[in-house]
From TrEMBL, chain A:
Top-rank taxon: Bacteria
Cited Pfam families: COX4_pro
Keyword Transmembrane helix: yes
Keywords: Cell membrane, Membrane, Transmembrane, Transmembrane helix
Protein name: Cytochrome c oxidase subunit 4
Automatic annotation (TrEMBL), chain B:
Keywords: Cell membrane, Membrane, Transmembrane, Transmembrane helix
One matching Pfam family: COX3
Membrane topology: Multi-pass membrane protein
Source organism per UniProt: Alteribacillus persepolensis
Main location: membrane
Record-given protein name: Cytochrome c oxidase subunit 3
Length: 114, 206
């Protein structure tokens, strides 16, 4: 059995239709990559050029980071796909549990004089 | 678990989840990533709380250089794309193309790590030791922890590449490559927040 599992396959089982689908998905991935590069450049430009007011630039780049987070998670890591119910549950729990920890740390450490 | 694999049909379209072991690895790895999220969040929180505490030492604005961080970001983002493309090759049973893309991923990751080491050495020369200030400690700990993750990922993927350089894509190694690629994306996600929260906010003077 173990030997069987370590043997390569002579070909892929994918039908023409499945290959078309996977190629389309790959195009979407490359597009989302280009979009992420664009967002990154935007974030750097927002800080580097100082044309944008600091008060606006900060929430702006944080928003860009959050968008990139979702693109990475849902496209690159396939969270949007079927059969990803539990992975979604785990990551959402992680984010939900992180939020109070993050806020508490910022407030406690930031407010306390050290 | 069935005791035989049907080779006549060819590689399943989702080879990483074709066996029970593969499914378990996949699920278990997402539990791990959920935990990693919380761990990194606590380090981010600590850094954000302490980053004003420079204790007379160098400040973020004095130290950080945008071009360097930009190059590092591009390297890591691109390596994330190559590992995504490697997984498409894997699903198509194209072993050689998967290996090449994984090697490119490792090279880009290694370049990133090289820049990070250079950056840290530079900062130490500028007088930012680990114990200089609260800002220094929390910065080195957060960014260093990410760097350690990159190093671990490099070793992991290199081992996989060497171990399975001639085996073809099998139901045993497909989940391993898939999980390693998930890990690599996660490192990239963390970096997105590091370059935003640590570097851009630091330089922006927020």
């Amino acid at each position: 059995m173990a030997d069987d599992l370590s043997k390569p396959f002579p070909k892929s089982s994918m039908s023409e239709e499945e290959i078309m689908k996977i190629n389309k998905e790959r195009r979407i991935q490359v597009t989302s990559f280009a979009f992420m590069i664009f967002l990154t450049i935007l974030a750097f430009v927002a800080v580097a050029t100082e044309m944008i007011e600091v008060g606006f630039a900060i929430p702006f780049i944080l928003l860009l980071a959050v968008i990139q987070f979702f693109l990475q998670m849902y496209y690159f890591m396939h969270l949007k796909d079927k059969d990803h119910g539990w992975p979604n549950a785990f990551i959402i729990s992680g984010v939900v549990l992180s939020t109070p920890a993050l806020i508490a740390l910022i407030l406690l450490l930031g407010v306390t004089k050290y | 678990m069935s005791s035989s694999v049907d080779f006549s049909k060819g590689l399943p379209s989702h080879p990483e989840k074709a066996t029970l072991e593969g499914k378990n690895k996949f699920l278990g790895f997402w539990v791990f990533l959920g935990g990693e999220t919380i761990m990194f969040a606590t380090f981010f929180g600590t850094f954000l709380g302490l980053r004003e505490g420079t204790a007379g030492g160098p400040t973020a604005e004095e130290l950080f250089s945008l071009p360097l961080v930009f190059i590092m970001t591009m390297l890591l983002l691109t390596s994330s794309l190559t590992s995504v493309l490697a997984m498409f090759s894997m699903k198509k049973n194209n072993h050689k193309s998967m290996l090449v893309l994984m090697i490119v991923t490792v090279l880009l990751g290694a370049a990133f790590l090289g820049f990070e080491i250079y950056e840290f050495v530079e900062y130490v020369h500028h007088g930012l030791g680990y114990t200089t200030s609260a800002f220094a400690s929390s910065f080195y700990t957060l960014v260093g922890l990410h760097g350690a993750h990159v190093l671990f990922g490099l070793c992991w993927i290199t081992t996989l590449i060497i171990r399975y350089s001639r085996s073809g894509i099998t139901l045993t190694n497909a989940p391993k490559f898939y999980v390693a690629s998930l890990y690599w994306h996660f490192i990239d996600v963390i970096w997105v927040f590091i370059f935003t929260v640590v570097y851009l906010l630091g330089i922006g003077g927020a």
